[in-house]
Amino acid sequence: MLGLAVKDATPTVLQQYGPQEQPAKPRVLVPRLHTRADAFGVTVTADALPQVGLSAWQDASEGLCDAWGMRRIRISQPKPGVIVARGFRREPLEAVIHSPLLGPDGSPACRPGQFVSTDDVLLGWDEDGTPIVLNLAYSAHALVAGLTRSGKSITVNTLLAYASLMRDVRLIVIDPNLGAVAPWWRTAYKVSDAIHPDEPTEILRWVREEMQRRERLFWSGRTDRITEFSPELPLLLVVIDEVANYTRHPERKARERFEAELLAIASQGAKFGIRLWLLTQKPSADVLTTAVRTNLSARICHRVDTVEDFLHLFPDGRDLDITAADRTMPQGVSIASVGDMRTPVRLRSVHLPTEACWQINDLMCAEGLKVRDLPDHIDLDKAA
């Protein structure tokens, strides 16, 4: 009906040498279709026919939307002779989809130690429904920015949950506001909720000393980067929330000590198996120096106040068609460049609420993975 089939009047061999009482009827060539459904709609792969190529499918896209009941269709030609029609019943940036760590009822569907650092972590989907994944073993450092209520904590929940469930990762969380660290307080390798920089500085100094202890691996392994991890040689994930609390602390000497350790880890830590993730509401130059920020290659920017804030994460942001300096940007949507992604894309994070993180941590404690109690003044039963 849409002109994507071809009538072929060329007679077959039987028609050529058979009885000629009736004229040969033209054959209708219909493209072979392969369909695959997902959470957002359907992907249809078709063979291109003679004289029915990409432009013909694009011209027919509105008719396909109506016939298939889709909100929109994206047509592409990944290679000669193949057409891909991606139909969307739900927009990926609008759909709130639970993390695969949760079951249909919202309770945890995971077990402690089921992942390793080489497993891909599903962060979410871009606007075309392509999954955006993070691989801790093969990635480097990262910067996450966003205002309050922009959805930054949901993105961070996914990172911390997967890292906690990886048997070859040690999690270190520093968070003066407790929002990120509280669910993992009992099982993370090192934690701090200190407001003064001294305690976080001591943790970073320990990380840098661990980097020095691992130098011998470069000689024995004849390598310039540690890429294989185990419970005996774990990947260290260092997450610092509200980093501005320390880099803008009024006590100058304490601030400088913290920044010196932070810079050492940011510039050298990746090759020693350290992954540094910094979280901030405002990624301005007075919060993170250029020397630190240039080493944070993965970038996730939720809604921010100004274009200048966005440009601190994506310096070429004025040339992009997307921006995070948009007050209409939905909660949970960000601009991201992670892993092998060179061009930033819109990302809708999977939904992993803080309550689910507490439940996952309860499972870990039940498996004997608790390394510390909650602070003395916290009564978990009363808090619940």
Automatic annotation (TrEMBL):
Keyword Zinc found: no
Keywords: ATP-binding, Nucleotide-binding
A Pfam family matched in the record: FtsK_SpoIIIE
Transmembrane segments: none
Coiled coil: none
Lineage top rank: taxon: Bacteria
Gene3D superfamilies tied to this protein: P-loop containing nucleotide triphosphate hydrolases (3.40.50.300)
Keyword Transcription set for record: no
All copies of domain FtsK, residue ranges: 129-311
Family matches, as PROSITE patterns: FTSK (PS50901)
Chain positions recorded as ATP binding sites: G146, L147, T148, R149, S150, G151, K152, S153
Name this polypeptide is given: FtsK/SpoIIIE domain-containing protein
Source species of the chain: Streptomyces sindenensis
